[in-house]
Amino acid sequence: MAEKHVYRFGFDQDGNNVSEVAGATVDEAKWITGGKGANLAEMAALGLPVPSGFTITCQTCVAYSNAGNVWPEGVLDEIDEYRKDLEDRMGKKLGDADDRSGAPFSMPGMMDTVLNLGLNDDSVQGLIKQTDNPRFAYDSYRRFVQMFSSVVMGVSGQLFEDAISAKKAEKGVKLDTELDADDLKDLVATFKQIFADNVDVAKYPEVEVDGKAVFPHDPILQLRLAEQAVFGSWNTERAILYRKQNKIDDSLGTAVNVQVMAFGNKGNTSATGVAFTRNPADGTNERYGDFLVNAQGEDVVAGIRNTEPIADLPQVPGLEDAGNELFHVFEILEDHYADMMDLEFTIEQGKLYMLQTRVGKRTALSALKVAIQMYEEGRITKEQAVMRVAPEQLDQLLHPQFDAADIKGREVVAKGLNASPGAAVGAVVFSSEDAVAYAAEGKQCILVRWETTPDDLPGMDAADGILTSHGGKTSHAAVIARGMGEPCVCGVEALQIDAPNKVCTIAGTDIALHEGDVISIDGTTGNVYLGEAKLVRPELGGDLQTILEWADEIRFNEDRGRVMGVRANADNPDDAQLSRDNGAVGIGLCRTEHMFLGERKYLIQNFILADDPAVKADALAKLGEAQKGDFLGMFKAMEGLPVIVRLLDPPLHEFLDSPRELEVEIAKLEAASKALEAAASVDDSLTQVNEELETAIAVKAALLKQLDSFQEANPMLGTRGCRLGFLYPELNHMQFKAIASAAAELIKEGVDAKPEIMIPLVAFSEELKHLRRMCEADIAAVEAEYGVKLEIPIGTMIELPRAAITADHIAKYADFYSFGTNDLTQTCLGFSRDDVESSFLDTYMNEKLIKTNPFATLDRGVARLVQMGVEGGKSTNPNLTCGVCGETGGDPDSIQKYYDLGLDYVSCSPFRVPIARLAAAQAKINSNGGAQTVAPRV
Amino acid sequence: MAEKHVYRFGFDQDGNNVSEVAGATVDEAKWITGGKGANLAEMAALGLPVPSGFTITCQTCVAYSNAGNVWPEGVLDEIDEYRKDLEDRMGKKLGDADDRSGAPFSMPGMMDTVLNLGLNDDSVQGLIKQTDNPRFAYDSYRRFVQMFSSVVMGVSGQLFEDAISAKKAEKGVKLDTELDADDLKDLVATFKQIFADNVDVAKYPEVEVDGKAVFPHDPILQLRLAEQAVFGSWNTERAILYRKQNKIDDSLGTAVNVQVMAFGNKGNTSATGVAFTRNPADGTNERYGDFLVNAQGEDVVAGIRNTEPIADLPQVPGLEDAGNELFHVFEILEDHYADMMDLEFTIEQGKLYMLQTRVGKRTALSALKVAIQMYEEGRITKEQAVMRVAPEQLDQLLHPQFDAADIKGREVVAKGLNASPGAAVGAVVFSSEDAVAYAAEGKQCILVRWETTPDDLPGMDAADGILTSHGGKTSHAAVIARGMGEPCVCGVEALQIDAPNKVCTIAGTDIALHEGDVISIDGTTGNVYLGEAKLVRPELGGDLQTILEWADEIRFNEDRGRVMGVRANADNPDDAQLSRDNGAVGIGLCRTEHMFLGERKYLIQNFILADDPAVKADALAKLGEAQKGDFLGMFKAMEGLPVIVRLLDPPLHEFLDSPRELEVEIAKLEAASKALEAAASVDDSLTQVNEELETAIAVKAALLKQLDSFQEANPMLGTRGCRLGFLYPELNHMQFKAIASAAAELIKEGVDAKPEIMIPLVAFSEELKHLRRMCEADIAAVEAEYGVKLEIPIGTMIELPRAAITADHIAKYADFYSFGTNDLTQTCLGFSRDDVESSFLDTYMNEKLIKTNPFATLDRGVARLVQMGVEGGKSTNPNLTCGVCGETGGDPDSIQKYYDLGLDYVSCSPFRVPIARLAAAQAKINSNGGAQTVAPRV
User: Chain A partners of B660 at a C-beta cutoff of 8 Å?
Assistant: First the structure.
């Protein structure tokens, strides 16, 4: 059968629905006839008053686009048939037709619409005769010329607005509505001249007459050009950008809908409006929307006139019946779609026409409330309710926001990347230490840094928000801030920071911010404001809790499918408690290096750098004590739940100062010494000073040599992870014993501590074999010391391709695998997370070489490695537990993949646990036959 | 059937061979009874005069070792049976037995031997009676006590040597042979006392009598302790180290051979010796070896007395028959083994005994000659001849060496890693520029550097050898030197280099080398000598050529199996010519970044750093011209053969100066400026100077900012490879056009230029799709310009795990794949090649976490990626050519794997091409049923 390019919708002359259905369900049909077309046919089937028409398919658009904007063979004939069919059904010729567009994805404001198509100098007379309303007819005509010229022919819309303004000035009036029929007739002529002056006949030879552009009077030609414009609009920059932002595939195409025009501007018993069946902002079950009397659709959106609330529609004289019918339509739509709907309508001389409907977009707050209402009303099941809330949306509810009214009036003084959501207010501070000091005094502060480093962790934790001038959405600041659930604006290029002098300026302004000056930052938008903006924490009610409980109910139901747990990444007792409060069933990753910072940093530095073995040993012992304390707190907070502790992972130089800075410092001291030497020849007393200086230089030079010896060209591929344990076995022993003895102490107290030990960066099974043996010996020693039996599973991160590839070997020595997708992505793709944001990732996204940031959403190649890892690991060790603890562990798209890859749990930031719980429930539903629906009533 | 632990060899009382054969062939048997035991049984089967005995298997050794040096159940009984059987066969009791060891791998000097076992105060009397030669008997006895004490009981051998020296001093004689029977009898007593004083009875309770150690008189106990010592020796440090160096698996174990003693010290018709059936040094078909009259085996090796050449043996009175019989044995052995054999023999009172034979170790020169001779003699086929030469050995022949006699007398003043084989002599220079200057004047030089960088390439090329104080065998210097075939000694820690002052010193000596001082370095041994050592280029004759021709004959024979080509990595016309001369059938990798160095470096710097677009464009145009010139030379040199040109690969900062150095320089200038400022307040004229200085500082500060903007935390995972082409498309266009226009120009001249273009570091198929399109457009433009048709295949490096994993997708846009195993190993294992040598690799090798350096020999995980790449690629593009161009492409072990993985070619350094040709032929033979043997005579 030849491909069908056009589908009919609406009614025949007897009012029977004659829509051709493009799919078994409206969801299926929308891939062919687009969201709008499919829903028009669906509404016709429901008997709702849809103006009849036909739809040219999305696939036709793609074929047209791919052929370089050329119609596929036979399609024009097919369209012509359907046009004639529509004329037959209506009993009138084109000249009353209307042309609209739609796509399988609802793209509000993206695809262009042309109203009043078919009008020309002749048919406008017909319209006058038919309505006896010349003003209406010319208003429609001038709208058509204007819309056709700008939308279809690409003439600047401003030219027409200017002409209208000129006309109003000439007439001394202010509103469009004050122009009369003659004025509008004049405008039609003016508009046609604008058309003639601005259309390039080389581009549009169809409108050429004697070498000049003439506004086309032939309705068939008008239709053809309009159809081509809609299909052409699929590849406008604006549409491409929108699709990129919304991850819509370019290959979908858009449909063209041609339907009979309903005039909402045919006098005071005509109207037009948009509405939602419930409140999309907060989910209240009330009619929501606006209408305008005697107007066409674009007037409502344009905001030229003040609209009326939809609830008042039945009160307008002459619109009573249509209004009540509309509200009845609300019910029919909700009954049919079992969701909150968004719709457009027009009333032409008292008769209601439904122009569009679709599932209404809504806030997170509304999504939760509507889903629960719909379940309570018996329209949907709990599973459907759970599927109705987009996990990503919850982020809105989990962080404080600026008060909308307050923030509206404030100037955005700088803009950066929206790196970690939520809003924060505080005094500007320029160092980690100052942030800690402010916090200690109970003052709120924003840490402002060029970029952050692990050194800044205490300050980042103490601050209320983070602002950096460099780095992208996966920079250190961004990643850590998201992990902490703290607002962060990154990469504010205008920010010029002079940290030593505790001041920063904003390029292009005369603003200088000194320490203590209060600013407000919005990590959800990337905006920076001066002064203290008003913060609000959205009212959650119990809706979020309810939906999450339903999600868990589904997630833990073994009869419904495989169970996937949600754990959290946390490094201290507070975060562990928060994780538990947010519903995590364990800690998937505790990064012990985070316990080596702040006041403890000098200890690890002593361990690394000290020549004296006693100093080294002392430093190590103190680190062990300190870590044990942390573990006691964490294991207690997570009593009865597993806590995976990862051994020290980063290369040691991350704990050391920068050799470059030190070398510059030495150069400066040497210059000073040289100057002193010269002066000492005059002033003898300076000799002593210089000798001291020279000693200091020698000490620093020795230190520099040491620092350099720890440098690596490619630290990510260097001496880190389990490799450290072979070079510095004492570090391992210290950590093994700190973990085991904290557990032993708690168990003796009756606390059910459940630590698990994770060895990072394993590439060879031999590594794990050796370290496991070492670990088991240390645990045995602790067992003997405390007289308790410990059961501490030992596992490894799978974060190198080789580990995934040889997972069958490694699993012989592992109780669990945790896929470290950050590192795995780095090595699999050869992207450095430390560099990629500032280098080529943007270019790659723009050139569409990649669709998503592979550090945020699991890459296909990395997914294959995870698959090899799970399959290989379970093949030799069926009891192996497999989880993931990378950034992607909290990403809904990735969670779906992890469910399908058979992971036992995902682990993410404590703040994302609710998101992950919902996403995991949805993944399970998706992968087990989709959501159960309400049983048909018997 | 219970496991058999002991095998019999030798003869019964009637002289019939009663050996128990442990395998179908001697090669099979040696895995059970060890190399020595298997060959003893084999010789017995040939009717050769082997002293009878039995062998305890290697598997017994492993079981003994694994059980913590405890005998497996029943084995002691089994051994006892065989001992009794041997006593029965000989018609005499233990007391004449001898105990020797062997392993499946011949380990000369590694496993310990105990002669004369069974002697005690009683049996020595028997020996005297039997021989009427008390001196012989006591000589044997004192040898036994000495050997047993040191080898079996671990007493320091020096104590016995000291006692002998004392005895000689007491007697006023110089030679051992001058001691008479009484002296030797005294020594036996002294030796027993040394035993008593030095053996720890806690460790050896078997020899305890009344709390003291007493030399064991019981022959059965002697035997048991000796057997345990041999098995125990498998795990001595020396043996472990040897196995590590020779890649011998620890799980093989060693066998113990117990055989009847043949005395070579029974007077002047007795003798002992070692021999080869041909000359192992140069392959001449002559008898080769030494003997000693009236001596035991260890005397020959110890060098106490001067040995006689084996050819003279039949001339010695009383040894005529045994000598002629020995030469007849040579022929029997060569006929049987069809190889040059190494053997040990003893003549006891005119009767010949064969103690050992094995395939003789030989130099490369000898290996070639013997293989060819054996073929010509009809003993082996060409395939066997090709299998007889170890590819790695050829390296000896391909580089100049020091004259052995000359170098023997020279002091090794420093020692480093033998990073690139061959010897070199030249004047010391400390910079690349100086090396180039020396070379320009025709002077030989050695480039001495802390470490080399890509900056040093011109100097490395100009120098005759390279010496560095840092870096390992895979450091930049080592890799590049091997690529250049230039001798290199790396990581000489004693070297203290002061490059600015052009001097270096050697720690622990008072040697200071100034520029121009002549030194000699040996990249084969890592030795450094002062002055000019004599260089020789070994005489190759045509043997190498012959074997390589045979190898190629096999390699290109399609009936014999799949053909795998050998190409070379070369970046300039000279290397291309050398590659061709060495038998390469194409260039597998031309690294274009090597064309950006030396005088051209400022051009690429201008391109990167210049703000002025005109300067940028000009730099690019000049680079294009220069590259085109290089390509013309290379394509011409390789006429008719493919030349794969890789686009620019390294991150751009590799072409830029170090920001750290610049920052230090700025700090110094700022200090100078500050000083000047102070001085200017006194001397006004200095103000001008200081202003100029400040300007210079500002310029440098701006440059520093630029340099920093190109820095990356992890350059290997950064902005490099094809990623550059998306950020700087003009670089790609320049290179595409330079390649295509060079080819076009040559084709017009009638030269068959065959370039192929390789896109590096592809991770996503979309990258290759885009760049291929770009490249094709540029080629088309060149075709139009020159009016010629170009056929330039376009392919990619597979050097990231993701590329290998998604090879099926990428292959849709690739004509060929070249596996870049250097990068693939880095990312698969998470090892940085730039760092790994100086960090944990050594530890890993020592701890046996890994067996070989994964950058030198293909790692198993990486091999799996290569397999995925080949299979995936060919699944969607059956015409895809697959090769490898990493370091491993020239490694024989890896070449075997590449053959089995189905690669179409390997590419390596031009100097390794002969090695790779031979290795590839051997791989083909191995993977296709093994070498054909000589047809049995009809």
Answer: 659-660, 663
Nearest CB to B723; choose among A672, A763, A840: A840
B contact test, residue of A660, A697, A805 with most B CBs within 10 A: A805
B175-190, pLDDT tens digit by residue?
888 899 999 999 999 9
Q: What is the pLDDT of residues B595-606, one digit of tens each?
A: 998 789 999 999
Question: What's the maximum distance between 2 C-alpha atoms anywhere in chain B?
Answer: 116
Instruction: Inform me whether the pLDDT recorded for B107 exceeds 50.
Output: no
Question: Cβ–Cβ of B766/A850 closer than 8 Å?
Answer: yes
User: H-helix or E-strand containing B352?
Assistant: strand B351-359
Tokens (6 digits) for A844: 């790659």
pTM: 0.84
How many degrees, rounded to 5, is the angle at CA A547 between CA A546 and CA A548? 90
Rounded to 5°, the CA angle B869-B875-B876 comes to 100
In the structure, what pLDDT confidence band is assigned to residue A17 with cuts at 50, 70 and 90? very high
Cβ B318 vs Cβ B268: under 8 Å: yes
DSSP track, B566-602: EEEE-SSHHHHHHHHHTT-SSEEEEEGGGGGSGGGHH
Length of chain B: 938
Cβ contact A827–B830 (<8 Å) = yes
Instruction: Report CB contact under 8 Å: A835, B718.
Output: yes
- Chain length of chain A: 938
pLDDT at B611 over 80: yes
User: Average pLDDT of A649-674?
Assistant: 90
* Section A252-277 average pLDDT: 90
Per-residue pLDDT of B545-585, as tens digits, reads 999 999 999 999 999 999 999 999 999 999 999 999 999 99
Active-site residue set of B? 476, 885
Pick from A762, A767, A772, A828 the residue to mutate for testing the B interface (most B CBs within 10 Å). Answer: A828
Which of B718, B823, B849 minimises the CB distance to A766?
B849
Are the Cβ atoms of B801 and A806 closer than 8 angstroms?
no
Coil, strand or helix at A511: coil
- Write the CB contacts of A929 (distance below 8 Å, at least 6 apart in sequence): none
Pull the structure tokens for residue B577.
């010519």
The answer to whether the Cβ–Cβ distance between B828 and A805 falls below 8 Å is yes
Backbone φ and ψ of A852, nearest 5°: -135, 160
Q: Do B835 and A714 touch (CB under 8 A)?
A: yes
Q: Which of A445, A488, A446, A452 is nearest to A470 (CA)?
A: A452
Is A885 a known active-site residue? yes
Q: Give the C-alpha separation, B151 to B145, whole Å.
A: 10
Contact of A716 with A823, CB cutoff 8 Å: yes
* Residue B239 vs residues B103, B230, B352: alpha-carbon distances, Å: 11, 11, 32
Instruction: Please state, in angstroms and rounded to a whole number, the distance separating the CA atoms of residues B821 and B887.
Output: 7
The closest of A367, A369, A422 to A395, measured between CA atoms, is: A422
Tell me the one-letter amino acid at B880. Answer: L
Paired strand residues for B289: B275
> Distance between CA A587 and CA A582 in Å, rounded?
12
Give the mean pLDDT of B161-180: 90
- At position B722, the amino acid (one-letter code) is C
Question: Using only C-alpha atoms, what is the Rg of chain B?
Answer: 34
- Residues A601, A607, A608: CA angle, nearest 5 degrees: 90
Residue B847 CA: distances (Å) to CA of B53, B244, B841, B843: 38, 11, 10, 6
Neighboring chain A residues of B700 at a CB cutoff of 8 Å: none
According to DSSP H, which parts of A303-390 are helical?
Answer: 320-337, 364-376, 382-387
Share of chain A above pLDDT 70, in %: 95
A422: nearest Cα among A321, A311, A523: A523
User: Closest partner residue to B726 among A836, A843, A864, by Cβ?
Assistant: A843
Mutate to test the interface with A, among B764, B771, B805 (most CBs of A within 10 A): B805
